[in-house]
C-alpha cells in the first residue's frame, strides 16, 4: 500500500465529472490496490473521506471512515465504507449546518447546509450491492465526497463565503 498525493484546489481534475467504474474493473488487482492506497491516503491525511479524483483518478469511487479523527474530535465514529458508483437520495428536506474542510483545500473550513438524512447506495469494494441510511455527520461526509465525483467543491455550495476560515482560527471567533 502507498500514500498518494492529494491534489489541491486549482488542479482542473477536481472540476471534472468522473466516469462510472465498469463491473470488470472492480475485481482487478490494480483497482483493489488503488482502493487500499485510497484508504491509506485518507487515514494518513486524517480525512473523514476521500474521493478518487482527489488523487487524480476520474472514477466514481469514494471511501469514508471516522475513527477518533483528530480533525473532527467531536464527531461520531462510523465504519470504513468503500462506495463504487455511489448514489445519494435525500430522505427528508431537513438540513443541517455543516462546517466542512477538505483535503484538497487544506487548512480551510467553511459553513454550508447539507441534508441531514440520506440513503447511500452503490457497490462495495467487491461489486456487491451496498445500501445504507446515514444521518448527521456520516451523511454530510458522503454528500461531500459524492460532490467530488461531479467536480463540485464544498466552497461551491456555500451561501456565504464570509464563513471561510483558516483552521487555526476556526472556533476562536464565534460558532465554529
TrEMBL record:
As its record notes, the protein acts as a catalyst of:
N-terminal N-formyl-L-methionyl-[peptide] + H2O = N-terminal L-methionyl-[peptide] + formate
Q: Which cofactor does it need?
A: Fe(2+)
Q: Name one GO molecular function term.
A: metal ion binding
Keywords annotated in UniProt: Hydrolase, Iron, Metal-binding, Protein biosynthesis
What Gene Ontology terms for biological process does this UniProt record contain?
translation
Q: Which domain of life, per UniProt?
A: Bacteria
User: What SUPFAM superfamilies is this protein classified in?
Assistant: Peptide deformylase
> Which of this chain's residues are annotated to bind Fe cation?
102, 144, 148
Q: What Enzyme Commission number does this protein have?
A: 3.5.1.88
Cofactor notes: Binds 1 Fe(2+) ion.
The task this protein performs is described as: Removes the formyl group from the N-terminal Met of newly synthesized proteins. Requires at least a dipeptide for an efficient rate of reaction. N-terminal L-methionine is a prerequisite for activity but the enzyme has broad specificity at other positions.
Which protein are we looking at? Peptide deformylase
Biological source species: Pseudozobellia thermophila
* UniProt lineage: Bacteria, Pseudomonadati, Bacteroidota, Flavobacteriia, Flavobacteriales
Amino acid at each position: 500500500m502507498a500514500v498518494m498525493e492529494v491534489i489541491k484546489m486549482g488542479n482542473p481534475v477536481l472540476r471534472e465529472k468522473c466516469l462510472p467504474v465498469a463491473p470488470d474493473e472492480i475485481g482487478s488487482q490494480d483497482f483493489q490496490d488503488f482502493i487500499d492506497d485510497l484508504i491509506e491516503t485518507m487515514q494518513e491525511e486524517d480525512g473523514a473521506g476521500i474521493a478518487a479524483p482527489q488523487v487524480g483518478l476520474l472514477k466514481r469511487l469514494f471511501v469514508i471512515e471516522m475513527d477518533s479523527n483528530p480533525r473532527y474530535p467531536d464527531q461520531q465514529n462510523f465504519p470504513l465504507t468503500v462506495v463504487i458508483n455511489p448514489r445519494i437520495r435525500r430522505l427528508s428536506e431537513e438540513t443541517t449546518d455543516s462546517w466542512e474542510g477538505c483535503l484538497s483545500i487544506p487548512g480551510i473550513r467553511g459553513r454550508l447546509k447539507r441534508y441531514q438524512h440520506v440513503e447511500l447506495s452503490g457497490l462495495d469494494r467487491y461489486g456487491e450491492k451496498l445500501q445504507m441510511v446515514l444521518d448527521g455527520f456520516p451523511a454530510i461526509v458522503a454528500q461531500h465526497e459524492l460532490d467530488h465525483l461531479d467536480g463540485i467543491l464544498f466552497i461551491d455550495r456555500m451561501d456565504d463565503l464570509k464563513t471561510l476560515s483558516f483552521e487555526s482560527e476556526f472556533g476562536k471567533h464565534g460558532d465554529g
